[in-house]
From TrEMBL:
Keywords carried by this UniProt record: Metal-binding, Methyltransferase, Transferase, Zinc
InterPro entries: HCY_dom (IPR003726), HCY_dom_sf (IPR036589)
Biological source species: [Clostridium] cellulosi
Record-linked Pfam families: S-methyl_trans
Protein name per its UniProtKB record: Hcy-binding domain-containing protein
Amino acid sequence: MFEFKEPLLLDGATGTNLIKAGMPSGVCVEKWVLDHPDTIIELQRAYVDAGSNVITAPTFEANRYKLSLHGLGDKVKEFNKQLVSLSKEAAGGKAAVAGNMAPTGLFVEPFGDETFDGLVDIFREQAFALKEAGVDYIACETFMSLTEARAALLAAKETGLPVTVTLTVEKNGRTLSGGNVLSNLVTLAAMGAAAVGLNCSTGPEIVLKALSGVPSQLPVPVIAKPNAGVPSNDNSQVTVDEFASYAKEFFKEGIGILGGCCGTTPEYITALREEMNKAEFIDKRGGDGAKSEGVRDFIAANEKQAFFISEEDLDFSHKINCGVDIADRLLEIEGENCAARVVIKNADDAHEFGMNAYLASVPVVLLGYDADALDTALRLYQGRAMLDSKSDIEKDKLNLLSQKYGAIII
C-alpha cells in the first residue's frame, strides 16, 4: 500500500506538454496518447529524472462519459490498462504510478439530469479499471464541485486503493461551484481520502493563499499542484525559478506534497525538487479530536461553509420532517445559531432531504429511523453532516455510516 510520506514530489503537466508535442485540439487525448506512445513515455521519464516520486497515468478523461463523446465509451477498461502500462514503462520502477480520474462535467439533480449514483457508477467503472491495471493509488484531480469530488472518492474507495482528491479554484479562492476550500477538504478528508488539496487553479500564489491555515484543520497530508499558466506572448506565465521558490512557502504552511499542473515542464519539476531539498518541511497536520476535558471540537460543513463547533455549545432546531415543505423549513432557520435537526424515516425522506439539502445554510444533524434511508441521506448531502446518537439504528450500523461518509456522531 502506497504511503504518503512528506515531503513528496509529484510530476508536472501532461496536457500542455502534449499540445507542444503536436497533439491537435478536439481529439480524444487518451487515444492520441496511445497512438503516440513515445511522446508520453519520453515526457514521464523526464519527470522521473527530474526527481518525481510519483507520475500520473494519462487517464484524465478515460471514463465512460468522456470517451463516449468520441464514440469510444466501450474502451474504458482497455484504454486505462494500456495508458497505465505506458506510465509504468516510463517509471521503470523508480517512481510510483497514480491512476488519474477527472470531472465528467455532468450536473447532478436537482441542478441537472444525472443522478448522484449515476455519477458514482461512471467513476466506479474507471476506478476498478485502474486498479486492475496496477496503479499504486488513484488521484482524483481538478474537481470543480464537491458533488463530483465526493462521487469520485466514494467510487475509488471501493477499490481498496489509497485515494487522493484535489480541487481547482478560481482567482477568488473558491471552486467554480462556489465551494469553500476548507469545508470541501474537511469533508473529503473525513470521508477517507489519503490526501487532499488543490491543483491547477491560477498559479502558486492563489493556491498558497487558498490553502493557508488548512493543514492544521486536517488529519491527512495536503497537496499543492499549481498551474504555471499556459504559455503566452504576454509573459504572464510563472517562470521556472519563481514557481520553484514557492516550495519554501508551502513547506512553512505544512503543505508537503508538491507538483505542477498546466504550463509546467520537467524543468519546473527539476527546480522544484532542488528547492524542496533545501527547504524545511513543517508538519502542521491537525484534525478533529477530543479535548482532555472530554469536550469535542469539530468541523461540520456544507459545500460553501465550514462550521467550527464545540459539542457543549451545540443547539438544535426543532425537528424538521422531510415533507413537501422541507424547503421552507430549511430556509426558516437561515442565520440561526443552531443545527438543522432533520428526521429521516424512510427512502422518500432521504430523497426529499437530498434534493433540498443545498438550501441549508446551517450545519445539519440527521436523526435516523432506518439505516438504508440514512445511508442515502448522507450520500446525497454534499458536505459533512452530524448523526444524532439517539437515532433508532444499531450502534454498529451508525458507526459504519459515520466512517463511510465522515459524519460526526453527537
